[in-house]
Each structure stands twice: as C-alpha cells, then as structure tokens.
Design a protein that fits this description.
The complex is a heterodimer of chains A (about 950) and B (about 90). In chain A, helix 8 packs across helix 25, helix 9 runs parallel beside helix 25 and helix 13 runs antiparallel to helix 16. Chain A has 30 helices and 37 strands. In chain A, about 30% of the residues lie in helices and about 15% in strands. In chain A, the strands form ten sheets. Chain A has a seven-stranded mixed sheet with strand order 14-13-28-27-26-15-16, with helices on one face. In chain A, strands 33-35-34-37-32-36 form a six-stranded mixed sheet. Chain A is of the alpha/beta class and about 950 residues long. By secondary structure, chain B is mostly helical. Chain B has one domain. In chain B, helix 1 crosses helix 2 and helix 2 packs across helix 4. Chain B is globular. At the A-B interface, helix 21 and helix 22 of A face helix 1, helix 2 and helix 3 of B. Bound molecules: iron/sulfur cluster (3 copies) and FE2/S2 (inorganic) cluster. The site of one iron/sulfur cluster (SF4) has 13 residues of chain A, from helix 4 and helix 5.
C-alpha cells in the first residue's frame, strides 16, 4: 500500500528538454516528452483508473483498466504504456470505455474475497477504489466459480504477511523487487488462472532470497502484502516526513501515525536520497524506540560497583556538573572531555562540542567518526580541499565504470546499492576491490568485470599499481591535470608511481592480485568514460587509511574523473550522520566547518559569539583519551549516543581506561556497554522524539521531525543544554532551529541553511551559501575547493600487524544488512531472525586444516586478546583470511582487534588483525568475565527498580 | 605514559613513514612537525620531547629530526580560557 498521503501519478517521471502539449478531455497539458498519457492526465488533474501501474515502476500494461480513446488511434490503448505526442487528443471517459473497464473489474472482483470491512487495506485499497471508480454494481459471474479464496497466508516474514487469496496477480510486487530493489526474489509462476506470486522457488518469504526491503509491500495495490503493524494497529491518520536514523544513505520516510503511535514507515517518493525506496532497517526495524529495555529516568551512583539510584533530572544533572567541576579543580582543566556520536543530529553534536570548548574550556571532544571515516576527512582535504564526497547519489546513473573499494553496499548502504545495481543492469561496468566476495560481485543480472581479491592491508600497494598502469600506459587525462591540478605535485606523483617497484608485477606478491588483472582493471577504469569510485571502511580502517584516501583522490584526478556528474570520489559513510558530526566540529582540532582551532580569526569569531575565551590547542582524540586516562590525567567523560566499550578496538584496553576514570556520564537510550562503567545515566531520546537534521554521505542535510513527545521528558539537545547551564555556561535555545541558525552564522559552507529553507527545498547539499543558494550536488566543478588539485605521494608501508607462525591468519571485520553497528537498536528488533550471532567466516581449506566444521566453536586469539565464535565455513573468504561482524557485544570481536591505527587520524585498523583460530569447547576467559560483569551490572540496575519503557 | 611512551613513539614513527616518501628532506621534516603540532595535544608533544631528551631510542631518524620543530610553548591566547570574551553574546 502506498503512503496515505502520497498521490500516485501512475508512471515514473521523465526528464526531457522537449515539452509536448496534448489535450486530455478537452483541457491542455504540457509535459516532458516520454511521459505516459496516464501521467499527463494525472498532472492535469484527471485520474485514469489503473491497477497494474504505479509511479515507482515502469508501466507494464497488463490489467487493461486504464484504457482511453485517442483520436486517430485504433481501439482503446492503455494509457500507462502509451506515450504522449504533440497535439494528441485523449478522452478518458465515455460509455464504451466505461463498459470495458467494468468488465475488467467484474473479473477481478469475482475472484476476490469480499471482506472489505475487516481488511487491513480498507480505505486505502486500490482494488476497492477502482470498483468505486468504474461504478461496479454487479458481478455477473457470481462468486461460485473456481477461485483462489481458500489460499493460505505466508506469515514467515516478521514484518509483513502475504495473503495469497487477495492477490490480483498485477505483478507490481515482482517488478518492485526487480526494478527498485534489484533482488529478483519474486516471480509469477504458472499461467492463466494458475498464475501466482512466488518467492524464489515456491519458498516462504523467509526462506527465499528476499531481503525484506518492503518495496513489494508498498507496491501492492491490495492487502495481499501488508505490514503486520498495519494489520495490528489499523490505518494511520496522518504522516510526518522524517529521515532514517540508521545508515549514511539517509532515506526520507513518511512516518504514518495514529496520534503519537507509529503505524508504519513508508519511504518518501520525493526523498532526494532514496526516491521512495528503503531497506529492512529503516522501514521495519524501529521497534527499539519503544523497547522495554529503554531507560526513561536519570540515574546516578558514585562507584560502578554501587546499585543505580533513580533521581530527578535536576539531581542527575547537578551531580554530573559538580563531579566534572570537582575533577577539573583537582586534576586540571584538561582532565575532562566529551564524545559525541554520528547517531546524533547536527544540532546535538554541535551543542556537545560547544559545551566542551566553551563550557569545559578545552578541546577534548571527539566523535565516533574517529573510528570510521576520519581518514576521509583528512585525505580529501589534503588533495581536493574539502572533507567530503564529491557527488550526489544520482550521479551514479551517469557512471560508465564503477569502482567499489573496501565497501559492501548491498549490506552497508542498501538503498544506494539498489540504485547502483540499476545502473549496472543498464550496462555500466563494475570493478570490485575487496578481500571477500561481497554480494555485488555476482548478483542477478550483474557480474563484476574484475574482482581484485587483495590481501587485507595492501590497499595502497593496489592503488599505486593501478596508478602505475595509468601513468606508464599513457592513460593520464593530461589536459585535465594541466588545467586543474598543481602540475609539480602531479609530476612528483607521476614519477613515483611510475617506479618499477609500484608496478602490478612487483606488487603482485604483496597484494596477491595477478598483475594482468590489475592492468586490465586499470585500463578499464581509465578508458571506459565516466569513472566513479565508491569506497567504505575497507579503505579507511587501516594503518594507511588516510594514504589510501589520498591514493584514490590521486587516481580520480589523474583520470580526469572529478568535477562533473557520473564520476567522483564517493565515501560511503557508515552511520546516518557521520558527515554531519564531522561538519559540526566534533574533532578536537577543528571548529565547525573544518577550521583549525589555532586559526586566530576563526577562534575569535567563535569567542565573540559564544562569549568566552577558547583554547587554541588541539584536544585529545578518543584513543588519546584512553591513554591519558590510563596515565591518570583524564578523569571525566560525557558520552552522548556512543558505545566506545563495544565499538572501539582492543576492548580490554578501553575498559581498563574507563574503569580508571572518576565520572563517566552516558546519555543513551539503553544501558549500553559503556554505561556499565558509568556514574551518571541520562536517558536520551530516539529520532522519533526530536527535531533536528542529519547530513548523509552526499552532504545532504535532511530534517528529522518529532512525531512523539520524548519518552524521558527531554530531547537530547535539551539535556546537553541542562548540563551546560549546570556547569555555569549559559545556553538558552528554544528550538533546534535556533541551533542551526547559529551554525549557519558561523560556518561559511552553511550560511544558506535553515530549517525553513530545508522545508522549502526538501533537503540541501552543502555548501549552501550565496554562491550556491540551493546547495551543491556536485563539487569541484571548474575548480577544486583548494584551488588546484594536489597530488600526494603515497608510499606503501606494510602494517606492523604481521602474520607469523603463532598468528597465521588475517582477521578482517565488516557489517551485515540486518544489523546496524553495535546493534543496540537492531538487536532489539525482529531483525535478529536474520542474524542472531556474529560468526567467524573461514575458508574450507583453513577450516579443514584445523578440524573445524560449520557451526563449531572456534577460539580466535590475537596479540590483543581472544574470544570464541561459531564457524561459518565459506569460500566467500580467501584462504588465510577470516572475517567476522561485531554487532553483538558478547562476541568480543573487538577484544581481538589491536591498537594499531591510521598514521594521520588514529582511525583504528579494524580490518587487519593477525590471529590464530582453533576448535574449542567453551567460551574464552574474556567472555566469561564479560558475562559475569554484565550480570552484575544488570542486577545493579534491577536493584534500583528503574523505570523502563512499557 | 601507560606502558611507557610506546604509544606516542609509535604514532610519531607512523607519521614519519608517510612523509619518508617525500624526496625533499626539509619538506618531509616540516610535514612531520606540522602534523604533530596540528593534531597532538601539548601534553603529548611535551612527552615526545622529553622522550627524545632521554635518548629516544625507539624513535626513527626522520621523526626524530622533526622533533626540533615541534612546539610546546604556550600559544598566544585571546581572552582567558573560559572567561567571558569581549562581546559576550552567548546563547
Ligand atoms: S521485500 Fe524486497 S526483497 Fe523481499 S520480495 Fe519484497 S521487494 Fe523483494
Ligand atoms: S501480491 Fe499484490 S502486488 Fe503482487 S501480484 Fe498480488 S496484488 Fe499484485
Ligand atoms: S538504506 Fe540506510 S537510510 Fe535507507 S532505510 Fe536503510 S538504513 Fe535507513
Ligand atoms: S494500469 Fe495500465 S494496463 Fe494496468
């Protein structure tokens, strides 16, 4: 069922410079060439009856309900498949048309259960509407004939049901799965009366290839495919447009509401990032927001071995402030700090860094982007001049060759992956560089031209050898480089990559990728037309993360693939607001807008606006905070929306640091792993409970809108404000829009941004200022932000994390579609049905050598620690490499990862850990300790009899 | 420093490894010291300097040469930190 508040114009929008004027029932309408008659009619205000057509899908022309009469054309053409032409005269209603339409409807209705009054789609069923529209009064065939009314229901999917008795075989679901999602899980099996919708080979939805994106559910015109929440709660009465709080795609949704209760989330067809599509997380996995684990009252305790005590907001905030002040008085101004999260809104993040800089009087503020995309910010700023991706998502539709490096879009950025797959099905070429065979390498109707299966940790060697081919085979776009880049930096780089030691042949033994394959991939990328690079954490989370980002920028510049649509350097940001949290100045060395704290002019601007003197010295990054804590110099920490005890590497090091501190304040929805080490717990609010903005991977700022009151009484920005005031630094914002206004006043790339402007435009891609009043979809057109593009020499330096006889395997980590990051949200939803534990993927050869079979418990030991996971034996990973996800805290994936980090930003090297794997029969010592500690902490929570969500 | 100065020495060596690719030695040294001045806290820089003064065995040659350009002097400051600035217009 489409959204209650959206109008379906029947067929997709077409773009064309050529406009066509035609007449519909006597009124003139002008539309772009290529538009269907149905859509033109809808734009002219005339609804032509339809069943198999819907705006999200290409017209199919099967139901014959949309017939019209067109002067000069024979018969009654279907308006959904007939395109407009100049001067066309269309009649949508007359007796002849009405008779045919009624006949069509009669056939449908004779095989449809007439339980409209109790049907979940009642009021929004297109079949019901069409019966009304065509004036059906009577069904001559009776209801006694052969029918499908007794067919069963498939309720296997946790979020939607398939009630076959209601299916009219319009194939909208099948086409949605193909065109929108690109999974091809559904088919129409059989012919004529026997035809029916079938997931995979007559399997249940759960057992099929279905990834539960819900596109088919939204496309279904009847109640055949319905959300279970719709069945349970009934139709919504209003909807509010907001933004998904999961990944960096930043899908726009209509939250369909019944009062303050969400009935269902429906992707917004006008959403600029997602165009009406979504994945299983954003559409369905929102149950965490009302989960009974949510803590709704503030709590304090003086030691982490004490039971929690539920207190008033005032008492909690006063206690937190007095502790922070006490610590500063005793250990110095720099002994406290704050950590904000990419899960927070821009306004929340801005306030946290403002509180730290102005209220705490130091620059000890950092964000979880430290552990994911900080090298992107650094590497792109150095080369291109701006710490952000260069394109919008739609740009991929103009790419001719797509190079995916260290990213797994179908799992990590599913809605963008669907768009990318659409382009690949249209014929764009694909190169994948990844140690593991990600799904994109081979998926229905797509097959990568090259899968460069490199060894983890050798990215820079790979990019250098690709560049070597480009340079030595004369594939450099010389005119672009001469006109747009610093020529001396180019020449230095060119001479460097041309060195024999960087050739694919020389690097083959390092990367493990055959030289011929690298040469072929390099030629394809440099010569196929528009080349677009997409990369993820497989690039950044390495000891040479920043170097690799520079290497990617070098390659894009050398091949002239920057500054127009269809090309570019595109970091796929993990979480919803990674880009925004970086933009908002949450790194210790930068004010909002990436301006260094030592820049006197900038600092004075902030000092004047904020009314206090500010430090000109960079503060501590997250890993430096841990070191300083262990040194006894860092004692107090305010953490908003982040779970460092689970997500940061070398868990035992992190927990030792947390244990050594005197006051940890955690603001979150749940008692997360870090909160188990906390002294103050401030209950946060979900994205449904507050106003604000998120900035996605395309620099797109979208609104998050409050659809219900904060369950704990305060939205997160209000809590930060309470803490600031209690610390003696006054803040008095009445609404998050005032915070954005302040950001806009202080940040040159944001001067044109306001809530009002976002409401008008739908969303805005920064920079948005006088020069770009409607934002900037493509950056670096004509000129780089830094003026001339700068090439940097990127020598390959092997990581110090080396395999040896004791640790012979390389462990690399990643993510999965159904779970999100530390899993705090998705683990509290039915998404666990797809993934309820982290497993260790191991190649059959390595497994056999160790006597490991599928499902065995495997001990994984590294230089940092050890843990136990169950084995999944698969050829997806190559021999010598093992892989796991880290969505479950008890897995202890980060107990094994080490302190090694990117040289420039200290982004941890999550992707390379030398390990040994052995068959074991019991959990690791760490896991036993973890279990005991967690049980103790839970009992300390219970002892307090705290208020949790209903 | 926890476990001695291991952590900062490792960081400085890692930075050195990137800039070693720069063929102009003076530029490499400037690159390393700028990076450290820009991203490390004063306390961390101080520790690095002290480490070098006490021998600095584990620090590679290139970053060691850059240490001479690492600054720890208190920077010029506008208004006193945390004290009301000239035009207090705090929200
Ligand atoms: S939910 Fe998505 S993947 Fe599953 S069948 Fe429907 S469209 Fe296909
Ligand atoms: S399930 Fe719905 S969308 Fe699919 S064929 Fe049946 S009625 Fe059409
Ligand atoms: S793709 Fe990302 S933003 Fe879109 S619905 Fe899924 S999780 Fe949300
Ligand atoms: S809507 Fe046109 S044929 Fe079905």
């Amino acid at each position: 069922m489409i959204s209650i508040d959206e109008q379906d114009l029947g067929t997709p929008r077409r773009e064309s410079d050529k406009l066509v004027t035609l007449s519909i029932d006597g009124s003139e309408v002008t539309v772009p060439a290529g538009t269907s008659v149905m859509r033109a009619a809808a734009l002219a205000g005339t609804k032509v009856p339809k069943l198999c057509a819907t705006e999200q899908l290409e017209a199919f022309g099967s139901c014959r309900l949309c017939l019209v009469q067109i002067e000069g054309m024979k018969g009654l053409p279907a308006s959904c498949t007939t395109l407009v032409s100049e001067g066309m005269k269309v009649t949508t209603q007359n007796q002849k048309i009405a008779d045919v339409r009624r006949g069509v409807m009669e056939l449908y209705i004779s095989d449809h259960p007439l339980d409209c009054l109790t049907c979940p789609a009642n009021g929004h069923c297109e079949l019901q509407d069409m019966a009304g529209a065509v004036g059906l009064r009577d069904v001559r065939y009776g209801y006694e004939g052969e029918n499908h009314l007794s067919l069963g229901k498939d309720t296997s999917n946790p979020y939607f049901t398939f009630d076959a008795s209601k299916c009219i075989v319009c194939s909208r679901c099948v086409r949605a799965c193909e065109e929108q999602q690109g999974t091809f899980a559904l088919t129409i099996q059989g012919r004529g009366f026997e035809s029916k919708v079938s997931p995979s080979q007559n399997e249940s939805f759960m057992d099929s290839e279905c990834v539960s994106c819900g596109a088919c559910v939204q496309a279904c015109p009847t109640a055949t495919l319905s959300e279970k929440t719709l069945i349970d709660k009934g139709q919504a009465e209003h909807s509010v447009i907001t933004t998904c709080a999961y990944c960096g795609v930043g899908c726009s949704f209509r939250a369909e509401m019944k009062g303050q209760e969400v009935v269902r989330m429906v992707p917004n067809k006008d959403g600029h990032a997602n165009h009406g599509h979504s994945c299983v997380k954003g559409r369905f996995a929102i149950g965490y927001a009302t989960h009974s684990d949510r803590i709704l009252k503030p709590m304090i305790r003086s030691k982490i071995s004490d039971p929690w005590r539920e207190v008033s907001w005032k008492e909690a905030v006063d206690y937190a402030a007095s502790e922070l002040k006490r610590i500063q008085a005793k250990y110095g101004r720099d002994s406290i700090g704050g950590i904000t999260s990419s899960r927070c809104s821009n306004e929340e993040t801005y306030l946290v860094q403002k509180l730290v800089r102005a209220g705490f009087g130091n620059n000890n503020v950092d964000t979880c982007a430290r552990v994911c995309h900080s090298p992107t910010g650094y590497g792109l700023k150095q080369t291109l001049g701006e710490s952000a991706g260069t394109q919008d998502f739609d740009s991929v539709m103009k790419a001719d060759v797509i190079f995916v490096i260290g990213a797994n879009p179908t799992d990590g950025h599913p809605v963008f992956a669907s768009q990318m797959k659409r382009r690949l099905r249209q014929g764009a070429k694909l190169i994948v560089a990844d140690p593991r065979r990600i799904d994109l390498v081979r998926t229905p109707h797509i097959s990568a031209s090259h899968h460069l299966k490199l060894l983890p940790g050798t990215n820079v060697a790979l990019i250098n050898s690709i560049a070597h081919v480009v340079v030595t085979e004369g594939l450099v776009k010389e005119d672009f480089v001469r006109a747009r880049c610093e020529v001396d930096s180019f020449e230095k780089w060119r001479d460097f990559v041309a060195l024999e030691r960087n050739s694919p042949e020389a690097m083959e033994s390092v990367t493990g990728v055959p030289a011929a394959q690298i040469r072929a991939a390099a030629r394809l990328f440099a010569t196929a037309g528009n080349g677009a690079i997409y990369y993820g954490l497989g690039v950044t989370e390495h000891s040479q993360g920043s170097t690799m980002v520079m290497g990617i920028a070098n390659l894009a510049m050398a091949t002239g693939n920057i500054g127009r649509e269809g090309v570019g350097v595109n970091p796929l940001r993990g979480q919803n607001n990674v880009q925004g949290s970086c933009d908002m100045g949450s790194f210790p060395h930068e004010f909002p807008g990436y301006r260094h704290v030592s820049d006197d002019t900038v600092r004075h601007l902030f000092e004047t606006t904020w009314g206090v003197g500010l430090q000109s010295e960079p503060g501590l990054r997250i890993p430096n905070m841990f070191e300083a804590a262990l040194d006894g110099e860092f004692k107090g920490l305010y953490i908003e929306g982040e779970d460092i005890a689970q997500s940061d590497p070398n868990t035992q090091h992190v927990t030792a640091a947390l244990t050594s501190m005197e006051c940890i304040i955690v603001q979150d929805l749940f008692l997360n792993e870090s909160a188990k080490f906390a002294h103050v717990f401030l209950p946060g609010s979900s994205f449904l409970e507050k106003d604000g903005t998120f900035t996605n991977a395309e620099r797109r700022i979208s609104r998050v809108r409050k659809v219900m009151q904060p369950k704990s009484g305060y939205a997160d920005w209000e809590i930060t404000q309470l803490l600031a005031n209690a610390m003696g630094y006054p803040m008095d914002y009445k609404h998050p829009s005032e915070i954005m206004d302040e950001i806009a006043r202080l940040t040159p790339t944001f001067t044109g941004v306001s809530f009002k402007r976002i409401d008008e435009l739908g969303s805005i891609q920064w920079p948005c200022n006088e020069a770009h009043p409607e934002g900037t979809p493509t950056m670096h057109i004509g000129e780089f932000v830094r003026g001339k593009g700068k090439f940097l020499v990127t020598e390959y330096v092997p990581t110090r994390e080396k395999v040896n006889a004791r640790f012979p395997l390389i462990l690399t980590t990643g993510r999965i579609l159904s779970q999100y990051n530390v899993g705090a949200q998705t683990r509290r939803t039915a998404n666990n049905l797809w993934h309820d534990e982290d497993r260790l993927e191991i190649h059959p050869h390595d497994a056999e050598e160790r006597g490991i079979v599928e499902g065995d418990w495997v001990g994984i030991a590294s230089r940092a620690g050890d843990t136990v996971l169950r084995a999944r034996v698969t050829e997806r990973v190559q021999p010598g490499v093992v892989y796991t996800t880290f969505h479950f805290p008890e897995s202890g994936a980060n107990v094994i990862t080490t302190d090694n980090s990117d040289w420039a930003t200290n982004c941890p090297e999550y992707k390379v850990t030398a390990v040994q794997a052995t068959r074991v029969s019991q959990p690791s010592e760490w896991q036993k300790r973890f279990r005991d500690f967690s049980e103790t902490q839970e009992s300390l929570l219970k002892a307090a009899d705290v208020s949790v969500a209903k | 420093m926890s476990g001695g100065n291991e952590h900062i020495v490792q960081m400085a060596n890692d930075i050195g490894n990137f800039f070693r690719a720069e063929s102009d030695r003076q530029l490499a040294i400037a690159g390393i010291s700028n990076h450290i001045n820009k991203f490390w806290t004063r306390r961390m820089r101080q520790k690095l300097l002290e480490y070098v003064q006490h021998g600095g065995n584990e620090l590679d040659e290139l970053p060691r040469a850059a240490v001479a350009h690492v600054t720890v002097a208190p920077p010029a400051q506008g208004a006193a930190i945390g004290a009301p600035a000239a035009t207090a217009a705090s929200k």
